[in-house]
């Protein structure tokens, strides 16, 4: 009988070292952006109930937390502010002594080489919880651009290395790029939340940032999860307007979009491993249903394999530890 002829794919899977030799996708600590939530006051470390292991930190505890992150080799952090005061126009977002501005200055004084990214939005700062100016129940696009531009400039003045606008107003990259250039910050790049879906995965973040809308939802400015071609339009607009990075948010349910952007654009692609994705894993792990380390590494590897150059993740410190082992 003639011997069967077929491929022997298992030849390259025989041992751990052989599998490592041919592994195509690798996670590195430099891939991760570590998110932090900063609050006013001192000696405050408030665990977010829906995000085990994630805290709202006052500046003193923030520095302790970042010292650990830096020691683990993490190179970049994104700062989300939780202000004491809110108003209709989110004025604490662009105040020179707002919580994010104070945090940026403190971080850069303490860790000058750490890349500090400023989240640039209004929802945490507005009394209504929306990402723009509201008039008769409608979110106004163009007047909001002026406030976003003011916020970006104030963050750059404080020392932010990168501005990361997450608001999804039309024209936000153009408005911010113009304002930064006019203020002398031509060197400060923009990490655009270019493709941000109106996702159900954001709930725990809204607990952490106190940013839930007081009425309605954000579907008039965030994208429909059913749409793919819309992502190309959004990313193309932001690229033409001067974006330096393109972000996809959320990541896990939108790996196809990450790959699409990687294939069609020549900017660094950022995946946001969002709060809901984090909390689901944490809850399942706490119940003993999954191996947290194995699941997290598989998830983040899938994002990297899909085309993400950088991953914004609440697991950043955990993964940095695991990679050191």
Automatic annotation (TrEMBL):
Gene Ontology MF terms in the entry: porphobilinogen synthase activity; zinc ion binding
Keyword Chloroplast: no
Group of enzyme by EC: lyase
Residues that hold Zn(2+) according to the record: 121, 123, 131
Binding annotation for Mg(2+): 234
E.C. no: 4.2.1.24
GO cellular component annotations of the record: cytosol
InterPro entries cross-referenced by the UniProt entry: ALAD, ALAD_AS, Aldolase_TIM
Entry keyword set: Heme biosynthesis, Lyase, Magnesium, Metal-binding, Porphyrin biosynthesis, Zinc
Active site: 196, 249
Catalytic activity, reaction form: 2 5-aminolevulinate = porphobilinogen + 2 H2O + H(+)
Biological process (GO), any one: protoporphyrinogen IX biosynthetic process
Keyword Zinc: yes
UniProt binding sites for 5-aminolevulinate 2: 275, 314
Pathway terms, separated by semicolons: Porphyrin-containing compound metabolism; protoporphyrin-IX biosynthesis; coproporphyrinogen-III from 5-aminolevulinate: step 1/4
The protein's role, per its UniProt record: Catalyzes an early step in the biosynthesis of tetrapyrroles. Binds two molecules of 5-aminolevulinate per subunit, each at a distinct site, and catalyzes their condensation to form porphobilinogen.
Family (UniProt): Belongs to the ALAD family.
Subunit structure: Homooctamer.
Official protein name in the record: Delta-aminolevulinic acid dehydratase
């Amino acid at each position: 009988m003639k011997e069967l002829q077929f491929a022997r794919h298992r030849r390259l899977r025989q041992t751990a070292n052989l599998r490592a030799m041919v592994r195509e996708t690798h996670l590195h600590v430099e891939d991760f952006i570590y998110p932090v939530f900063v609050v006013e006051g001192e000696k405050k470390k408030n665990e977010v109930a829906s995000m085990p292991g994630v805290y709202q930190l006052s500046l003193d505890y923030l520095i302790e937390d970042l010292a650990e992150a830096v020691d683990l080799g993490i190179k970049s952090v994104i700062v989300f502010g939780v202000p004491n005061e809110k108003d209709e126009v989110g004025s604490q977002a662009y105040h020179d002594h707002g919580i994010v501005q104070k945090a940026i200055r403190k971080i850069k004084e303490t860790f000058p080489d750490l890349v500090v990214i400023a989240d640039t939005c209004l929802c945490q700062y507005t009394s209504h919880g929306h990402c723009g100016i509201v008039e008769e129940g409608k979110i106004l696009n163009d007047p909001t651009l002026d406030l976003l531009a003011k916020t970006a400039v104030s963050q750059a003045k404080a020392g932010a290395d990168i501005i990361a606008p997450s608001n999804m107003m039309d024209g936000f990259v153009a408005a911010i790029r113009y304002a930064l250039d006019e203020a002398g910050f031509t060197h400060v790049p923009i990490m655009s939340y270019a493709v941000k879906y109106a996702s159900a995965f954001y709930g725990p973040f809204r607990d952490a940032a106190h940013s839930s809308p007081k009425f309605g939802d954000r579907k008039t400015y965030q994208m429909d999860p059913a749409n793919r071609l819309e992502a190309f339009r959004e990313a193309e607009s932001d690229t033409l307007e001067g974006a330096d990075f393109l972000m996809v948010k959320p990541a896990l349910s939108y790996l196809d979009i990450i790959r699409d952007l990687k294939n069609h654009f020549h900017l660094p692609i950022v995946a946001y491993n969002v709060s809901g994705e984090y909390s689901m894993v944490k809850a399942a792990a706490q119940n003993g249903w999954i191996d947290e380390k194995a699941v997290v590494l598989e998830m983040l590897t899938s994002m990297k394999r899909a085309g993400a150059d950088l991953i914004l993740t609440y697991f950043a410190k955990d993964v940095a530890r695991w990679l050191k082992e």
